[in-house]
Amino acid sequence: MRIGLDMMGGDFAPAEAVKGVKLYLDAVASDAHLVLIGDESQLAPLLADAQLDQSKYSVVHSSQVIGMDEHPTRALKEKPHSSISIGFHLLKNEKIDAFISAGNTGAMMVGTFYSIKAIDGVQRPTISTLVPRENGSQGLLLDVGINADCKPENLVQFAILGSLYSKHILKIDNPKVGLLNIGEEEGKGNLLAQATYPLLKENKLINFVGNIEGRDLFSGKADVMVCEGFTGNIVLKLAESFYDISVRRNIQDDYLKQFDSESYGGTPVLGVSKPVIIGHGISKGLAFQNMILLAQQMIESKLLEEIKESFHSNS
């Protein structure tokens, strides 16, 4: 198992990326080999200080970095020696089995779609976020930003992708799917929600429990919560602000701490043929460790094979 990690992506790279690698290698007994992609001159002293087991990683040099504010498509074209470009080259050519970056999100999305493609039958890949719930479990909200406008069929596919992820990664046997809406009754909502409801209701691949409201997000009423990316991104950023407010007001609360983006690391792009995990730009060591763990889980659980099988048999 070879997991590629962009060491130059993120506000605190490469120092925090190296910390994440150390946390992972010190804590996890795994046969994973980490392929660290970045500027050798910057990485060498940090890796030496970390005193890592050298048999567990290798370094691939990249001489360029795509900045957070650069235009994604142009940057990938003009910077073929950037850590993100090299990462996707390695992934496409099967030199690594998964690729992780906390760098430019747009460049990660463009790179994903142009290098490894969507799984046959998936109209639009999606990104999700874990939702901490008061009972200690985790739900999944999707889409959270890359599909601002959607058709009903897209939301049905998000429900299938989210259900498979919840089953194989979150270990929820028969995940309940809810449609995020402004009321519980069938027929509520905007045109998209009204058209999506009957499609979810009749789909045999999911366990649809009906509409859920904003107040149900943290309750466990549904395990997979589906919406278009415009709503999902607003919910995500609102939820993350809970943690920021609690820190500013010096409120110590174990539940609110779970809204710290560090605690879940990054989000996988669901619906593409290989594991790609996108981290928060502000990722620190713990987030990088969690992203490597997630990549390992995605490979070991055969999640992508399950997704391919579902969409193949349903097409």
How does this model look, in words?
By secondary structure, the chain is α/β, with parallel strands linked by helices. Helices cover 42% and strands 17% of the residues. The protein is built from eleven helices and eleven strands. It has helices spanning 15-27, 40-50, 72-78, 83-92, 105-115, 152-168, 191-202, 229-248, 254-257, 285-300, 303-314; strands at 2-6, 33-38, 57-61, 98-101, 126-132, 138-142, 176-180, 207-212, 224-226, 266-270, 276-279. An eleven-stranded mixed sheet has the order 3-2-1-4-11-10-5-6-9-7-8, sandwiched between helices. It is globular and about 60 Å long. The mean pLDDT is 94.
What does the secondary structure layout of this molecule look like, with pairings?
Blueprint lengths: L1 E5 L8 H13 L5 E6 L1 H11 L6 E5 L10 H7 L4 H10 L5 E4 L3 H11 L10 E7 L5 E5 L9 H17 L7 E5 L10 H12 L4 E6 L11 E3 L2 H20 L5 H4 L8 E5 L5 E4 L5 H16 L2 H12 L1
Parallel strand pairs: 1-2, 1-4, 2-3, 4-11, 6-9, 7-8, 7-9
Antiparallel strand pairs: 5-6, 5-10, 10-11
What string, H for helix and E for strand, traces the elements in order?
A: EHEHEHHEHEEHEHEEHHEEHH
Biggest sheet, in brief?
A: 11 strands, mixed
Give the strand content: 15-25%
Strand order of the largest sheet: 3-2-1-4-11-10-5-6-9-7-8
Shape: globular
> Would you tell me the overall average pLDDT?
94
Query: Poorly predicted ranges (pLDDT <50, ≥5 residues)?
Result: none
Distance N terminus to C terminus? 31 Å
Taking Cα atoms only, what radius of gyration do you get, to the nearest Å? Answer: 19 Å
**Which percent range fits the helix content?**
40-55%
Structural class: alpha/beta
Number of helices: 11
Total E-strand runs: 11
